[in-house]
Fold this sequence. Notes:
By secondary structure, the protein is mainly alpha-helical. The chain has a domain at 62-197 and 239-250. It is built from ten helices and no strands. It has helices spanning 2-27, 43-60, 62-68, 72-86, 94-125, 131-149, 152-159, 175-214, 222-236, 239-250. Helix 5 (94-125) crosses helix 6, helix 6 (131-149) packs parallel to helix 8 and helix 8 packs across helix 9.
Amino acid sequence: MKQKLLLLLFLTLTLFAVEASAQQTTTLPLPKIGIDVGTADSPEDISVTLQLLLLLTVLSLAPSILIMTTSYLRIIIVFHFLKQALGTQQMPPSQLLAGVALFITFFIMAPTWSVVNDTALKPLMDGEITMEEAYDKGIEPVREFMFRQVRDEDLELFMSFTTLERPENKSELPTYILLPAFALSELRTGFIIGFFLFIPFLMMDMIVASVLLSMGMMMIPPMMIALPFKILLFVLVDGWNLIVGSVVRGFS
């Protein structure tokens, strides 16, 4: 009799456990993610697929677009020239310089990106304009920024490689010509600033080398002795403030 009661109690508890598990499964379903590959039934399906592929391509190229169309290129070149001129091989780290250059780029590009947001992104998100209209309105502030920095010689260089007629105004110049011309101009400007950064530190190296030679200390590397004095000079003249201020004012 006791064995039958225990067996009945065990079966009852088992049924309750199964029912509770079924309820939990119903209330808390596990997520399922799937990717279907099939044939397109209409041209609209192909258009959506191409738009998705284009969006993924743009997202993968976003870092390159950020570097090539903003002030980041000039700033990072100047910072690396400064690091070489000081002679500090590991300080500051390259990741730190890249981060500082990125934040300064956000500061410089904030007015341009604000115009892009107001004229293109917000109307697109609200459904007031199409994707093509948003691109046409959003690219104009970026083109205007690049036109303020690009040299005419660089534009003429890339125009000479094409069979296009000479444009009468800026709006007729294709963006694919403006982009490499802007990058080339930024490289030139960054190297010019780097040259002027090297002059005072090079003079200090020459002075220290002359002093060591006159004292007969020819076995001591002059750069090792000059490094503390270069750092001291850079701190006394507030070098970071001067360099960053000059670079930012160059984009005004």
